[in-house]
Amino acid sequence: MIHRRIWLACAGAALACSVLPSAWAQGYPSQSIRLIVPFAPGGAVDQTARIIGNRLGEALGQPIVIDNKPGASGSVGAGELHRARPDGYTLMLALDSQAVNHHIVKNLPFDTFKSFDYLSLLVTTPQILVTRNDVPAKNFGELVAYLQAHPKSSYGSAGTASAGHVNSAQLSLAKGLKTEHVPYKGAAPLLTDLLGGHIDYAFAGLSVMLPHIKSGKIRAIAVSSPRRSAQLPDVPAVNEFIPGFEFPTWIGLVAPPGMPADVRGKIIKAVHDVMHDPQVARRFGDSAFDIVNGSPEDFAARVRKDSDVMADLVARKIVTAD
């Protein structure tokens, strides 16, 4: 009888443990959700967080708290996500630099491919090559000629290994440029220094640069997308001059690995509903974003693809490790 009671107690405990994740998921979320933005306010990642934050909170039933953690091209914020519990209460919006930081940032405390759950690539926006108005170049050919003649010119990026850095590095490789790279903690401080005359040119997300292009404060030279942007149809694509040139800014939702399946499913469904909301889609369109909302598998494949591009640039010593 004693052995039978012990056996029943153990069986009951095992059953309780087996249903615990499901019960946990049914109560998710029961508190606010932290959304890490690993860049400074004002850039494309922060824009994306502000566009989806309230609507995602409504879809999940709890507020989304945006937490800007800039530094090391997004690696500071990614490190915080890596240390978070996989309970669905800490998420992050990753920039394209997430895919390539491991090639150039030393001693990262995480594995880019194993330490994160890539839930959905949400949006892309073309990178646009821009210059200050006082740079004597009004088109792509004139800018390349100017930079070849002025090797002490400098370009900015939203951070080492960001899409802006990759695009500028590929331009340097294709045209033999020797210009200096100046990394920032996001596109907003980059823009400030470009307008202030501290750097000469940059590739940056069109979503951030578009208002300043339209106001005439900076000059648009070319976009990095495969085709011209509908927002700026008179501005050529770089691949009209350098075939195959393409590396857009992308932003996706990332979580720690190991979340309960039901929690993960709730988040993915909520994100799908938000990204297909007409008002959200309109706001993204007005800001020059293209909605993707791809599958976790597609997102992980994009991360691998971009990692391979950076690996080649590092091997050619076009980009060097910090």
Automatic annotation (TrEMBL):
Keyword Signal in record: yes
Signal peptide: 1-25
InterPro entries attached to this UniProt entry: BUG, Bug_dom1
UniProt keyword GTP-binding present: no
Keywords attached to this entry: Signal
Domain of life: Bacteria
Family: Belongs to the UPF0065 (bug) family.
Protein name stated in the entry: Tripartite tricarboxylate transporter substrate binding protein
